[in-house]
Amino acid sequence: MKRLLTCLLLLAIGCETAGSARPLQPGIPADFGLRLGYGRMEPGAPRTELAILPSGDGTWELLVRRSSRQGGWPRSWDQSYAESWNADTVGRLAKELQEIGFFDLASQYMSGSQPDAETLTLEVSQWGRRHLVIASGSQPKKLVSSLAALDRLLPIRLNPWPSWLTSLQGGSVNRPQLVTDLTQSLAMHRRWLTLEPGRSPLHLNIFALELALGHQAAARRELAILAQDKTLQGLVPELEALLR
C-alpha cells in the first residue's frame, strides 16, 4: 500500500518546474522551484499542497491549496491562496535550504512503527539540481529545518501539519488560515495552469471546481480536454456521469 501511495504522490507532485530561467543577481537561482504536499492520497481525504513556481519574469508564484472536505470524488480543492514572490524572498529561502543541507537528505524516510501515518513530500529545484524527499512518521532534523524555513516566509498558516511532525505543530498561530472559497480556488488553479500548461491533472482539478460551482458548460469543456489526455482519458466516463 505504501508503494502504491508513493507512486500516486510522484504523479501528483509532478517532475518539472515552470517558467524560463532569466539572469538574476548573484546568489538567486533562476531555476528555483519547490513543491510540498502532505495528507492522504485516498479520494475524499483532506490534503494540503504548495508550490513555488517561476513565472518567467524574475518573480515566482506561491500557490497553496487544500481540500478540506471529507468524501467526494474527484477531489475538490476548496481552499487556496496565491501571491507573487520577488527574487529576494526566493533567494533567502534557497540560501537557507542550501545551508540546512536539504540536498543531503535521503530520498525516503518511512517509519515502520507508524504504517498508517500521513505522507509528506518536499521537492526542491535550484542551481540545476532537483531533490525529492518522501517522509511518513519520521522527522529527520534537516527535513524539519527545511520545512520550518519555508513556513517562516509564508503569509498564511499551513497547520495542521501531519500529526507526526510534532516540532512544527502550533506554529504560525498569528497568521490567517486558508478559507473556503471555490471561486477564488478556481481562479488560482487557472493561474497555475498558465504556469504549467502541460500539467494535465490541473484540468481534473478545474473540472471538479467548475462542477461544484454549477458551471456545467465549463465543466464539459474541461472534460473534453481530459478526453484527449491518454493518462487521464480513462476517467472520462465516470466524470461524465457526474454531469447533469
Q: Could you characterize what this model shows?
A:
With 244 residues, the chain is of the alpha+beta class. It has two domains: 2-181, no CATH class; 200-244, no CATH class. It has seven helices and seven strands, in the order αββββαβββααααα. It has a seven-stranded mixed sheet with strand order 4-3-2-1-6-7-5. A hairpin with a 5-residue loop joins strand 2 and strand 3. Helix 2 runs antiparallel to helix 3 (141-153), helix 4 packs antiparallel against helix 5 (201-212) and helix 5 runs antiparallel to helix 6. The radius of gyration is 18 Å and the shape is globular. 32% of the residues are buried. Mean pLDDT is 87; it is low at 1-13 and 15-23.
Write a brief structural summary:
This protein is of the alpha+beta class and about 240 residues long. About 35% of the residues lie in helices and about 20% in strands.
Order of SSEs, N→C? HEEEEHEEEHHHHH
Q: Largest beta sheet, briefly?
A: 7 strands, mixed
Which structural class should the secondary elements be placed in? alpha+beta
What is the approximate shape?
globular
**Are there runs of 5+ residues with pLDDT below 50, and where?**
1-13, 15-23
Please outline the helices and strands.
Elements: H1 2-13, E1 33-39, E2 47-54, E3 60-67, E4 79-85, H2 87-100, E5 108-110, E6 119-126, E7 129-136, H3 141-153, H4 182-195, H5 201-212, H6 216-227, H7 236-240
Parallel strand pairs: 5-7
Antiparallel strand pairs: 1-2, 1-6, 2-3, 3-4, 6-7
